[in-house]
Every structure is written in C-alpha cells, then in structure tokens.
Amino acid sequence: MKKSARFDKNKVILGIAAPVLAIVAALLITSVIILATGKDPLHAYAVMLDFGSKSDSQVWIINKAVPYYLSALAVAIGFRMNLFNIGVDGQYRIAAFFAAVVGGALTLPGFLQIPLIILVAMLVGSVWAGIAGLLKTTRGVSEVITTIMLNAIAAAVIGYFLQDGRLAVKDGNLFHTPSLPASSHFFSIPTQPAPLDGFLVVAVVVGFAYWFVLNRTRFGFDLRTVGQSESAAEAGGVGVKRMIVTSMLLSGAAAGLIGMPTLLGESYNYGTDFPIGIGFTGIAIALLGRNHPVGMAAAALLWGFLERTGTQLEFEDYQQEIVGVMQGVIVLCVVVAYELVRRYGLRLQQRQVGAELAAQARKTEKAEVSS
Amino acid sequence: MELRGITKRFPGVVANHDIDITIRRGTVHALVGENGAGKSTLMKILYGMQKPDEGTIGIDGERVSFHSPADAIARGIGMVHQHFMLADNLTVLENVVLGGEKLHGIGGKARTEILKISERYGLGVRPDVLVEDLGVADRQRVEILKVLYRGARTLILDEPTAVLVPQEVDALFDNLRELKAEGLTVIFISHKLGEVLSVADDITVIRRGTTVASVVPGETTPKQLAELMVGSELPSPQTRESTVTDVEMLKAEGLRLSTADAEGVERIVLDDVSLTIHKGEVLGIAGVEGNGQAELVEAIMGMRDPDSGTITLDGSDISRLPTRTRREDGIGYIPEDRHRHGLLLEAPLWENRILGHVTEKPNAKGLLLDLKAARADTERIVAEYDVRTPGIEVTAASLSGGNQQKLIVGREMSHHPKLLIAAHPTRGVDVGAQAQIWDQIREARREGLAVLLISADLDELIGLSDTLRVMYRGRLVADADPATITPEELGSAMTGAATGHLTVSEDGPAEGRTEEGGSE
C-alpha cells in the first residue's frame, strides 16, 4: 500500500510540474519579448491581472470560454482516438448555419424548438465530420487533409446559401438567416453586472459526459485503447474502423454545439458576422488542457482572460498583439513541457521498478544463501 | 578484439551478462544464438550504439570505450545492418559518399576509390546505378562497400543471410572469404547453423544473454550447436501423460487467404489449411517464421478475413463473427508481439488487465466499467501469476518482458478460455518465467483447454505438444509425433525438405545426447 502511494505522489507531482514549468517558461519568454519592445513586462501583467479580475471582465471571460470549451471538447474526442480533427471550425459553422435556417423557419414552443435547433446542429456537425471518418476508413485518406478541406467546402456552402433570395435576408450591409422567434432564445443566468450565458450549464454537462464516457464506460475504454495502440485494440476485439467513424461523428456532434451559445443567446441568426475560427482556438485549448475536462476548462478561461485583458493593454500603450504572442508561446511551452515530463516520468518509473525489483531479488538471494 | 565480462541491463531485464569473446584478426567469427538470446544487444555495444554497464572491450590489447558509432568507425569497426540503410533515390556512389564526403570528396576520386574497393574484394558494384534498381544482394554489397569505404577493418554483419536466397548466400560467403584473405575481420551473426559451419573460423554460442561455448567448426555438428543454443539443462517442457479427448474444440477447414504486397503482387499466405484441436490437446505448429503462422492465428482470431474456409469453435460456426465475439466465446490469445498486440505500454497494469476483455466480468457491469473489481482482479493476477511489480498503477512499459508476459498469460487464463492461441509464448522471457508459463499451459490443458501453440523454439514445441504440424509456404505440409521426433528432423521439414508423416530414424536422438559433453 505504501509503495503505490509513493508512485501516486510522483504522478501528482509530475502532473503539476508540467503546467507550472510551461507557464513559468511562457512568462519568461513573453517578458523577454515585451522587454525587447522597450516596455515593462511586470506592469503589463499587473494591468492584466487588475483588469481581468473586475466583475464585468469575469462575466465576459466566462461567456467567452463557453464556446471555446465546447470546441476543445470536440477536438479532444479526436485526440483521445489519435485523430486530428482540424475541421471543427467548418463543422461548427455549417452546423450553426443550418440550425439557424431551421430555427428561423419554425415557430414552435421553446421547449421543442430549442432542443430541435441544437439537435439539427449536432446532426449537421457529425455528418460533416463523418465524411472525413468514412473517407479515412474506406479510402485511407488522412483525416487531417479531409477535415481541413471540408472547412473550405463548408465556407463555400455557407457563402452560397447566405444570399438574398436563397436562405438569407439582407440587413443593411449584412446578410443573415431569418432571426429565431423569441421563444427560441436560450435562458441566461442573472448575475451582476451582466448575465451569464445559460449555455454554461450545457458546457458543464457535456464536459462531465466526456469524462464519464471516456473513463467509466466500455465504449470509452475501447476508444482510448484505439488511441493508444491501434494494433492492440484490434487484437483486443475493438472494431477500429467503426470506432474511427463513431468518434468522428461524436467529435462533429460536439462541434455542432460550439455555435449554439452565440446563435441561441446572442445573435439569434447566422450572418456574415458570425464568429469564425473558434475551431482552431479549440485545438490550442485542447492541447493546453491535455484533453482533460478540467484542464481544458482552465485553459478556456485562461484564453478568455488573455483576450479580455489584451484589449486593456492597448490603452496602456502596449501592442495588443502581445496577447497573441503570449497565447502562441503558452501552447508551445505546454506541448514541449508535457512531452518532456511524460518521457521523464516513464523513465523514472522504469528505473524505480527496476531498482525495487533488484532490491527484492537481492533480499531473497541473501535469504537463500544464509539459510 | 577481446570482450570481457560485458553486462548490459535494461529496465527490469538483463540483456547481456558476463560475455567473454576473443576475436582473432583475419577470421570470420560467428555469433550464434536463438532469437532474443542477446546477440543484437551485444553487437550494438560493439558498434557503440549502447554502452555496457560492466565489462571491457579491447582492440589489439588496448582498452577502448565507444560513445557512439562514430567512435567505432574511427577504430575501424563497421556494421552492416539487417535492414539496409540506403537512400533508394540516390545512386550507389551517392549512397556510399553520403556522410563520408570528407574522405575522398564526392566526385571522380570517390568513384575511383569505390571501384578499387569493389575490384579488390570482388564485390562487383557499379557506382552510377540507382539503388532502387538494385536487388537485395546487390544492396547488401553496397552496404558492405560503404563500410569498407570508411576504412573498416572489422565488419559486423547482422543476420546477413536472412534476406538472401541460397545462391546469393554462396556469393556473399565468397565475398567474406575475400575479405578474410585481405586480413579483415568479419563478425557474422546468425542463427542458421549450416551457414555458420560453412563460413566461420570460430563460433561463439550465446544463450540467454551470456556466452556458453566457443567451438571450432571442424569439431562440431549442427546438432551439437543446436543443443548448445537451446541448452539441454533448461527446464524441459516435457508433457507426456496425454489428456487429449475426442471432443473437437476448434476445427478449421480449407482456410485460404491471399494478400497483395506493396507492389500489388498477389501472394497466397494460407493455402487450404485444415486442422482440428480437441479438448485437452496442444497442437504445435512448427515452421520458419513468415510461412503463414501469423496469418493463421489472425484468421482464427478474426483479425483477418480468410477468402474461404470455415472455423468452428466448440460446435458453433464462428467464421463470420467479429474478434470481440470470438474472444467472449472463449478464445484466449497470447500474441506473438506483446508490445503491439497484447499491451497498452503507457497504461497502468489494471487497464492492461481490461484490454481485450472489456465486455467481460469482472471488468464491466453492463455498459459501464467496474474499475474496483478490475483493480482487485489485477492484484489477484499479479499475486497468482507471480508478476514482479511494485504495484498495479505502474505502466506496463516498466515491467520486464517476462513479467509482461506473465500478466498477459494471467489475463487470458482468468477468463477460462476454451481455446488458447499461444504464439511464441516464451519468446524473450527469462528461464524462470518460461517454466511458469509452461506449467500454466500444462495445467490448463489438463482441465480440458485446447491450445494452438506456435513457436520457433523446437524443444518447446516438441515438449508441450500432443500433435505437431509443420507449416511451409502457407500449407500444413507434414505432421509428426512429438514423442519420437527430434528437432533436427523437424527442422528439415520446416525447410520443405520433408513432407507427409515424419517418422524417426532409430539412432537419431540418442546420438545427440552422447556427443554433447565432448564439445564443452
């Protein structure tokens, strides 16, 4: 019992070591960059902390983090399978677009229409991701290639339909789909000074479901097995091809949710100004959070914090781009630090096991000799 | 060159210990040993790719220590790897000078030098041909030339004949004799005894990581060498009292499978294979690796779809069932390559215990995992099967090969299989674990388990099996009675030399035992 406790302690220390190492390294590098532009890095951090901890900033950060988190989950489902779904961006956009079209065309009571809109989004997202899954299993095309190309196709499809007389209406300079009826507006959590997006609840539920399915179900075990070793999974009886398609469908379904907080809680339609690029942000956040549901939540909040406080840096005469630099540096440091710590941990454990067994062997040998 | 007391440990396992070899200048020195005996590790130490934990290497009486292959090359030691390290899209000349540009440049001088070396040793290398246009034997000669070009006086050849056909082997041996005649030293690694005897001046036998004998070809026979390699003092896998029943457990009929290789050439890997294993019977399949054994196993496991044929397990047709259902129906599997097919190396032991049996008790309750029960059962396997580990939370990668294998055996046995497929169950496993695994197979057989045993260790095959079949080029070409057959006779059937039912000459086995003492 004592022995396993020591191994666990190592695990915890190593688990914390990686992010700490990464953040320290990222802060150092960023400081050097800020210094190079002739400004004071410590003051910049002080400004960011001060502005970021204001209550309206907190609400803003949390609301911003919700779609980021959903996006990271969508990416992470692929990562756990060793699939790189780089097409979350296209999946959520086309999903949100068709969900907006369906929602704008109907006027059902909210308790029917909101689930329907969400369902349509998940369905469209999974179909779009599923194409990549099918191409991979039937034709052997790398999902990296197909998903990124499907991003372009999604953009083209939306561009085609998002025109006056097709599926959109003209509103000033913008085109957007007909607005959702008021019954389809999602609830919000009344907080001061601004309300929190009700989709926060959905994000938490989906995050929990992600953890539960992966770690506590047979299906999740199969999925993780394929991610760790396709050959071992196959010998163990997992239908690898089927698992690839299934996980792409799930990833796409999760991607379908990304646009929902915006559609149901903010814009109420899909227009040319609908946010883009969240799918790529999700990749960075999934990397930063190491595919862990809590880690990704922290990463999504960090991302929101950086974006919120970056705007304030401008007023203090810093370059706003410094935030982009920080984000990039953090992701790089995290990837490097985790890999270093992982390898170190594996070696450490091998050495410990070897040493412990050698000690045991010596003991029994001595006992045999003396007896 | 002298090696003294070389010892190399890897996490949880000792790959080499107390190796002593003396290699005379201007000779062909063969190192023989089974797969996993530690030959490759030794060669990596000699070539500077690994550092020994203990022991010394001496060249011409001078102690040396290599930190990298570059040090070895500087000392005149060159290595020809089993898998060629050539760039296909470059010419022979370009491949030879690559990385050695400083020696003779990359132009005319280099070409002259290459032709000179080629001429001197009769290699017949044409410098301006693209490597992709060369056959295997020519590529090997380019590799040898590459090493000579860098001034090597000692060549290490790692299983050079594995990829060659017999005529090419003869040509290679002629080259080696040329090299020897010019005063170069060749270290030749192999497990093919006939070849070793025909080309080597000295032979060192390695078994279980250490040197067990040094012999001279003139004074030994393949039989004696084989015995030295396998070691007659090893725990014997004898299992004589028969437990075979007449209840058919596995029946495969007319299995055919063809695959297309990278160039699109169709190759028949299973050709009308039919076999029956009864309850309580161990069916051993002998054969040189790559003759369809792996495909047969995968067809029975459901990892490959045969083109035709049926597989029946315990009376029900499983030909069309997926792998998972076959496992649930009672097929246990000890895979040939445990790292690829049997373990999740970076997962803890208890997750490895679930692997392959995720739908079965105690691992699952309905659609959910039962982590508590799985962990508890892992503790039980660790204790019962003597898996040496500090706990069940460590990763599988940190265990030694033998302990990994014991975990796999324990896992598969815990689900009380009707049929156990054991592919090389004791490969790369230390002597103690080997004996345990044999005991467990025997124990289960007594309780009515049917076993399909595939092994390269002929003593293991003969000792454990109730029935023996020989596989050659995708066909079961011969069968034999393990009670009377000898490894030598089995060996000749494995090369396709004998077919049908193998019977034994009267004096075969007895002769081998008496002569063995003399050679040591």
TrEMBL record, chain A:
Keywords: Cell membrane, Membrane, Transmembrane, Transmembrane helix. The chain crosses the membrane at residues 12-38, 58-79, 91-108, 114-135, 144-162, 194-214, 244-264, 322-341. It comes from the Bacteria. InterPro entries: ABC_transp_permease. Its main location: membrane. The keyword Cell membrane applies. Pfam families: BPD_transp_2. GO terms for cellular component: plasma membrane. One of its GO terms (molecular function) is transmembrane transporter activity. It is a multi-pass membrane protein. It is found in: Cell membrane. This is Sugar ABC transporter permease. It comes from Streptomyces natalensis ATCC 27448.
